[in-house]
Amino acid sequence: MNRIIEKEFFSENVVRLEIEAPRIAKARRAGHFVIVKVGETGERIPLTIAASNPEKGTITLVIQRVGVSSRRITELEVGDVLTDLVGPLGEATHIEKVGTVLACGGGVGVAPLLPIVEALKKAGNKVVTILAARNKDLIILEEQIAKYSDEVIVMTDDGSYGKKGLVTDGMKEVMEREQVDEAVVIGPAIMMKFASLTTKEYNVPTVASLNTIMVDGTGMCGACRITVGGKTKFVCVDGPEFDAHQVDFDEMLLRLNGYKEIEKGAEQEYLKSKDK
Amino acid sequence: MAVTKEFLKEEREQAWRVDIRKLLKNKERTALTRVHMGEVDANERILSNIEVNTGLSEEEAVNEAKRCLDCPDPTCITGCPVEINIPKFIKRIEQGDYLKAAQVLKQTSALPAVCGRVCPQEKQCEAKCFYQLKMKKEPVAIGHLERFAADYERESGQISVPEVAKGNGVKIAVIGSGPAGLTFAGDMAKQGYDVTVFEALHEIGGVLKYGIPEFRLPNSIVDVEINSLTKMGVKFENNFIVGRTATIEDLKEEGFEAFFTGSGAGLPRFMNIPGENYIGILSSNEYLTRVNLMDAANPKTDTPVISGKNVAVIGGGNTAMDSVRTAKRLGAKRAMIVYRRSMEEMPARVEEVKHAQEEGIEFLNLTNPVEYFADENGRVNKMRVQKMELGEPDASGRRRPVVIEGSEYDIEVDTVVVSVGVSPNPLIPSSLPQLETTRWGTIVVDEEKLQTSIPEMFAGGDIVRGGATVILAMGDGRNAAAAMHNYLQDKLNA
Ligand SMILES: Cc1cc2nc3c(=O)[nH]c(=O)nc-3n(C[C@H](O)[C@H](O)[C@H](O)COP(=O)(O)OP(=O)(O)OC[C@H]3O[C@@H](n4cnc5c(N)ncnc54)[C@H](O)[C@@H]3O)c2cc1C
Ligand SMILES: Cc1cc2nc3c(=O)[nH]c(=O)nc-3n(C[C@H](O)[C@H](O)[C@H](O)COP(=O)(O)OP(=O)(O)OC[C@H]3O[C@@H](n4cnc5c(N)ncnc54)[C@H](O)[C@@H]3O)c2cc1C
Ligand code: SF4
Ligand code: SF4
Ligand code: FES
């Protein structure tokens, strides 16, 4: 259990792992996540289940290195075992046939977007997907996403691949051009904030999948709390998906930085310890 | 499994007990003064997580044991939720046979070293001691003696593992590894059942591990008790959320025939006042979990924790006291309790309040927060509080706090720990729509049998009672095991 059986680099800092976890593979639905801890002194961090294979008994995680804990995971090799892995957590995505869905993934947000795109397509929707990143190297899972999308639009900040521009530019183009019935946005909080403001202009109902800081992931601590429609919600049990137009993204952005200083120091120290 | 008067009487007439009673006259016994357990000096203990109470020496324990009159009608037992045979274990201590004393404890309590430390003895067994009831004297230090016997056994390396009946092959699932689940598991294993305990977190022990701090209950002590259960054949599966990782139905398919839910009251409450989501404001569950379960204060671990300089803890229970004392140990200059009632109404154990005071914790009683303020980064820097006064008693018999108009003032803070109570963990009830619950989210059970509306599911501890105590959770685990055994036997014979 918890053994890594495949590892692949999507880019220098983004890694895909396939992990033996038969129970989770069987129980999970699109939108679910797991909590992972590497090493006895490791931290518990949430990661979306990007795909699962119940027959084989495996789940797939796509991890972007941003700090110590995500780095520890990406440094594991095939045959290594995750110290702790628990899930599936969160509410599954509500999948329905609504017509045309605009799916937008920013950076590593494409990983959690993949299973949702797949499920939306299978439910009979027309799916237009926008993949956005700073540059070409950071665009991931394009092929897999294309398999379940009627159209894929790639946007890069620097124009090194696809169209030059922000995710919101691509979104506007699609919403100008055709009737969009629903939007799903997943990515960095700042991207979700602006994507959500954009769909609001066009009156398109929008779902965002929030990536707050978590500890237990089971509703026990409240570290993941945010404000939705004026009410406090726990992302790990009430979410991670919410009506994007109700989410207080500014508060979420602040809360995400709650441990920034400590974490930065921790990463520098970790890298130093590895140099020795 | 209630102990009968006849049984107690029979035991009391055993030769060794009679002999011990004869050693001293009752008058001599009552003339002795109650032992005082040693404590690490407050200035020293706040520098680390060292356990505050140092335990009794053999001599102190024997002297204290002499005070116990071995009453013909031992009222103390009625104060103990698991009905420990108190005079019997105490007389074993007086006799110098500490290992036998520990065995007496183990007949009814799966975690004596834990209870000896965290039980609210002053409200339970000791409140019903003859000394307290009839002589208005300090009661026998039952809790201290319990801790002594359990510690002695552990340190002697001669831990007795309770006898286990021959395996009957019946598979039982336990949901949650807090004191309720552990006690239940032990009792079922003793009767020969094949027991598996499922725990959502990566560590076994429930609140004993993630909530109660090292300085009150070292994790190593909980681990020894869990080890005993492993030796009895109990299996543990951590990182397993019943209702998520697998459903009750899945487990039934895997051959589990009956279930005990001891999933606790893990959901933190907030006050829903303005600014409560600013950075630096966290639930006591989060604060204590980071420090206790994740060992966040240790620089070798990856989990961070904010160690504030001005820390306010909102609430007056054990959890609040543990949080504020933890803050002190993390280096807070000012660690404050902000509680809306007065000192007398505080639900925390008397000992905890006393220790907190010694450690320099400030108590802002009759004070309630109304709003938080933050700097430009969203980090809390100020809290507005208002003063309260006590009005008429409410339903709980405690005098209701009433706001004093115009009494607001501001306090500088950089960390706030909200410790105003917990709600039952909704994971199990929400995955079992047939399960009957109250409107507070607790599971409805038959009071004696602890059986839920689903016949093969029993439940106990905080998920049934709301936030209660370790010993009540253990009592539930014990009663549920007895009732489930009967239920399964009846089913088998039907
Ligand atoms: C439900 C959920 C699903 C997620 N799924 C994935 C996934 O599939 N793949 C993936 O790579 N990541 C995912 N994340 C984010 C991932 O959990 C964080 O990147 C990770 O916890 C960071 O830990 P760290 O120690 O490496 O970085 P830290 O040192 O903790 O943080 C480094 C930097 O990242 C920021 N950060 C910290 N935590 C988060 C967070 N939760 N989200 C965004 N930024 C954060 C910090 O502000 C800091 O600037 C998910 C988060 C949630 C809540
Ligand atoms: C900080 C603090 C201090 C306290 N101090 C004292 C004290 O001094 N004296 C005292 O008597 N009491 C004290 N208490 C109260 C006491 O700890 C609780 O009443 C007691 O632990 C309840 O036991 P339990 O077995 O019902 O549940 P818990 O100890 O809460 O354990 C429940 C376990 O179930 C797990 N779980 C939940 N859902 C699932 C699921 N679906 N699948 C698998 N596992 C699951 C949880 O992760 C948890 O580990 C304190 C509580 C706290 C929080
Ligand atoms: S378990 Fe608690 S109540 Fe019972 S005798 Fe021990 S300290 Fe007293
Ligand atoms: S009531 Fe007090 S004195 Fe009497 S048996 Fe119990 S502990 Fe001893
Ligand atoms: S992560 Fe602890 S409550 Fe959501």
From TrEMBL, chain A:
Q: Which PROSITE patterns match?
A: FAD_FR
Signal sequence span is: none
SUPFAM superfamilies, per the entry: Ferredoxin reductase-like, C-terminal NADP-linked domain, Riboflavin synthase domain-like
Q: Which InterPro entries match?
A: Cbr1-like_FAD-bd_dom, Cyt_c3_hydrogenase_gsu, Dihydroorotate_DH_Fe-S-bd, FAD-bd_FR_type, FNR_nucleotide-bd, OxRdtase_FAD/NAD-bd, PyrK_electron_transfer, Riboflavin_synthase-like_b-brl
The residues covered by the FAD-binding FR-type domain are 1-95
Per the UniProt record, one Pfam family is FAD_binding_6
Protein name (Swiss-Prot/TrEMBL): Sulfide/dihydroorotate dehydrogenase-like FAD/NAD-binding protein
Automatic annotation (TrEMBL), chain B:
Its keywords, alphabetically, are: Oxidoreductase
- The answer to whether keyword Magnesium applies is no
Q: According to the UniProt entry, what is the EC number of this protein?
A: 1.4.1.13
One Pfam family of this protein, by short name? Fer4_20
SUPFAM superfamilies reported for this sequence:
alpha-helical ferredoxin, Nucleotide-binding domain
Task: Indicate the enzyme's highest-level EC class.
Answer: oxidoreductase
Residue stretches making up the Dihydroprymidine dehydrogenase domain: 51-157
Q: Name the Gene Ontology molecular function terms of this record.
A: glutamate synthase (NADPH) activity
Q: Does the keyword Oxidoreductase apply?
A: yes
Q: Where are the transmembrane segments?
A: none
Domain FAD/NAD(P)-binding intervals: 171-477
What InterPro entries is this protein classified in?
DPD_II (IPR028261), FAD/NAD-bd_sf (IPR036188), FAD/NAD-binding_dom (IPR023753), Helical_ferredxn (IPR009051), SudA-like (IPR006004)
Protein name listed in UniProt: NADPH-dependent glutamate synthase
Supply the source organism for this entry.
Answer: Carboxylicivirga marina
Recite the lineage of the species: Bacteria, Pseudomonadati, Bacteroidota, Bacteroidia, Marinilabiliales
Gene symbol of the encoding locus: gltA
